[in-house]
Amino acid sequence: MELVTPIKLYTITVNIFTIFNSLDQDAKKDLTPTKLRAKAAKFAKATVKAQMASFKRYGVWADWNNPYLTLDPEYEAAQVTGIAFLYCTYIGV
């Protein structure tokens, strides 16, 4: 489970509405939560790619081959592990 900041929640909401509003009526009827998540991930990856290009153009130095993406399974697994550790430590399971 990922901790969601207000700005991230706003971004997720805007992205979902952008994706949803770009669909025609038939596509909206066939949309499932799994399909919506896949479309949102595709949209997020495209946005990150565009942002990377802008940052590179601005001369920002970064590890461009290993970007920090919260939608990566490794990131999500680390979040779950951290929350489980805190739960076990403070609840005493």
What does this structure look like?
The protein has 93 residues and is mostly helical. It has one domain (6-91). It is 70% helix and 0% strand. It has four helices and no strands. The protein has helices at residues 6-21, 25-29, 33-57, 73-91. α1 (6-21) packs across α3. The longest helix has 25 residues, at 33-57. The radius of gyration is 17 Å and the shape is flat. The mean pLDDT is 80.
Which helices and strands appear, and what pairs or packs with what?
Blueprint: H1 6-21, H2 25-29, H3 33-57, H4 73-91
Q: Give the distance, in angstroms, between the N- and C-terminal Cα atoms.
A: 18 Å
* Main sheet makeup: none
Tell me, rounded to a whole number, the average pLDDT: 80
Helix proportion: 55-70%
**How many helices?**
4
Q: Can you count the beta strands?
A: 0
Question: Which spans have pLDDT < 50 for at least 5 consecutive residues?
Answer: none
By oligomeric state, this entry counts as single chain
Beta-strand percentage range: under 5%
User: What is the H/E order?
Assistant: HHHH
Could you name the key traits of this structure?
about 90 residues; mainly alpha; 4 helices; about 0% strand; flat
